[in-house]
Amino acid sequence: MTVHDDAGSSGRLATFFATDDDWEREGSISLGDWLVGAVVLVASLVTLELIRGVGTLDSSDAPTWVEWIAVISGAALLVFRRQFPLTIALLAGLHMFVTGVWLPMVMGLLPMQIIYFVAFFAGAAWARRRRDMVVVMGLITLFMFAWLSWQFAVGSGIDEIRESTSDAEGSTLVGPVTAYVLLTTLMNLLYFIGAIVGGQVAWRGARQKGRARRTGGDDRGPSRASSSAAP
């Protein structure tokens, strides 16, 4: 019974992610992509300087120009997200890791978190080969959770949590440290699963529209392109 359930679950996942589907969603760099990159860049830099203005970055030893480079390079990734979706997703994962290790306050900025989410979303939404998408996005997710686990188990993460929750009474069921770890894990899980599943849903929607246009084109004359220009 368990074997059949596992096979059924694997089959449903394969069907949802369309791992055997050869339909390709064509993506290219458009003016809209440059506008997205520019808007996100401005929002990220403004947020960075506002955070600096209230003194949150006082504990950072990094020069201002290094923080700016981190923000600029992150925003630049979004320009190419549709043409090179999996490459950009990998670079976004690397950018997230490097920035999180050396510039954690910059990595935690809301605009930067949006950048990473959109890059991962685009990896799932625009990848040409669906099997490659599953492998790449799976590896990124596993690496990020391995990094998170390492911080909790070996790094200074637990010590910092204890210090920040030293005055918290906690719950009768869950202590402050345990609650913090579980909450952080859950938020990260929702973050990555949301990006991947959301991107896959967008891809499936584009496939449906593309095939509908192609069918309509076959009925009325020359077929149209099967790609979608959705974000």
Model description:
- The chain is an all-alpha fold and 231 residues long.
- The chain has one domain.
- It contains 9 helices and no strands.
- The C terminus is likely disordered.
Q: N-to-C SSE series?
A: HHHHHHHHH
Poorly predicted parts? 219-230
Radius of gyration: 21 Å
Structural class: mainly alpha
Strand content: under 5%
Mean pLDDT: 86
- Number of beta strands: 0
Helix content: over 70%
- How would you describe the shape? globular
The separation of the N and C termini measures: 42 Å
Number of continuous helical runs: 9
The number of distinct structural domains comes to 1
Report on the biggest sheet.
none
Short key terms for the protein model shown above:
231 residues, mainly alpha, 73% helix, disordered C terminus
What topology emerges from the helices and strands here?
Elements: H1 2-17, H2 31-53, H3 64-77, H4 85-102, H5 104-107, H6 110-126, H7 130-153, H8 157-164, H9 176-220
Helix pairs in contact: 2-3, 2-6, 3-4, 3-6, 4-6, 4-7, 6-9, 7-9
How would you summarize what this structure contains?
With 231 residues, this protein is an all-alpha fold. 73% of the residues lie in helices and 0% in strands.
